[in-house]
Amino acid sequence: MKRVNRSILAFVLVSTLLLVVACKKDKTQKDPDKDTKSLYSFSNTEYTGLANVGNHYFPRPLSLRFGAKDSVTAWSHLTLSVWRRGDVRGKITKVEEGAQGETTVTILFDLPGDEQFNSPQVYTISADKKTITGGSSPIISMVDMKLFPKDAPSIVGVWSQPQHPDWFPDVNVIAFDKNGQTNYTQGGKPVYYVYDDKILWRENYKQDGSRLRFAGINPDVAAPLVTIIPYYGVLSSDGKILYVDAYDFAGARITTTLSTFEWYGPKRVTPWLIKQ
What is the residue range of the signal peptide feature (predicted)? Predict the structure, then answer.
C-alpha cells in the first residue's frame, strides 16, 4: 500500500511541475485575441508620393496603404470612364520574395464600371522596404513613392511656394491651424470674408495620416464672392512637402497638358507646397 501511495505522490508531483512549466510558457505567448500577426513583411505600412493615376494630366498625389492581411487602399483621384475620389480598394492576389530581398506584390483593384481598363497591378517593394515601384497605365503607375512613417507629421503650419508667388494661386500660401481650419494669402494679401475685411476667410480641413482633404479658393471667378474648390493632398515621407491636386477642375487654377500658356504654374508638374 505504501508503494502505491508513493507512486501516486510521485505522479502528482510530476504532473504539478509540468503544469507549472506549461503555465509559465503560456504567459510568454501572445494572446491571439489581442495580438495579431501581420501576414506579410510589408503589412500595415503606407507609401506616399506621386503616381500616374487614371487619365492623368500630371502625376497625382497618392497614398497606398497595406492592411494587416490582403487589403489595400489607394487614395487619390482616379478617373477612367468613372471618377473616384479618395479610397480605391484592392486585394493582394500574389506575393513573391526576390533573390535580392525585394518583394513583388500583385494587386487587383476593385473598379466597378471600369472593368475594361482593369488589370492586375504588379509592384516591387525594395529589400529595405523604403520604396515601392511598378504598376501600369491607366490604373496606378508609381512615379516616386516612399515609405511613410507610422507617426505621421502634423500638417499644422504655413505651406507655400515662396519663390513662385504666381504658381497654384488657389493654395499658394495656405495656413493649417490646430483647430482644423485654414486661411489663405494670395497676391501677398490675406483673404478676408467679403462682408468683413477684418475676419480671415476660413475653411475646414481634415488630416488622416498622410492624407489631407481641404479647400482651395478662387476669389476671381465671381468677385466679390469666393469660389470654394475641393482639393486633396498627400504628405511626402519626410513631412516637408505637400503634393496637392484639385478634385474639381471647374474653377481650379492649375495648368494642364491642354493649357496653351503656363498661367498657374509649369505644365505636367504636380503642384506642391513647402512647409515654412
Answer: 1-22
First and final C-alpha spacing in the chain: 89
Q: Which segments within the chain are labelled E, that is strand?
A: 46-53, 60-66, 71-79, 83-97, 103-109, 121-125, 132-134, 140-147, 157-160, 173-176, 181-186, 189-190, 192-193, 196-200, 203-204, 206-208, 211-218, 227-235, 241-246, 272-275
- The overall average pLDDT reported for the chain is 85
- Decide if pLDDT at 8 tops 50: no
Burial of 25 (0-12, 13-18, 19+ CB in 10 A): exposed
Q: What is the pLDDT of residues 137-153, one digit of tens each?
A: 899 999 999 999 999 99
Place of cell 530581398: 101
Q: How far apart are CA 162 and CA 24, in angstroms?
A: 62
Q: Please tell me the number of Cα atoms within 13 Å of 74 on its side-chain side.
A: 31
Q: Please, which residues have CB within 8 angstroms of residue 155's CB and are 6 or more apart in sequence?
A: 176, 205, 207, 212, 235, 242
DSSP β-ladder status, 196-200 and 203-204: unpaired
Q: Kind and range of the H or E element at 12?
A: helix 2-28
The C-alpha angle 258, 260, 266, rounded to 5 degrees, equals 80
Read off the DSSP letter of residue 87.
E
Predicted TM-score (pTM) of the model is: 0.83
DSSP state for residue 163 in the 8-state scheme: T
Nearest CA to 155 out of 175, 170, 173 is that of 175
DSSP secondary-structure letter at 21? H
Q: Which amino acid is at 176?
A: F
Peptide bond into 138 cis (omega under 30): yes
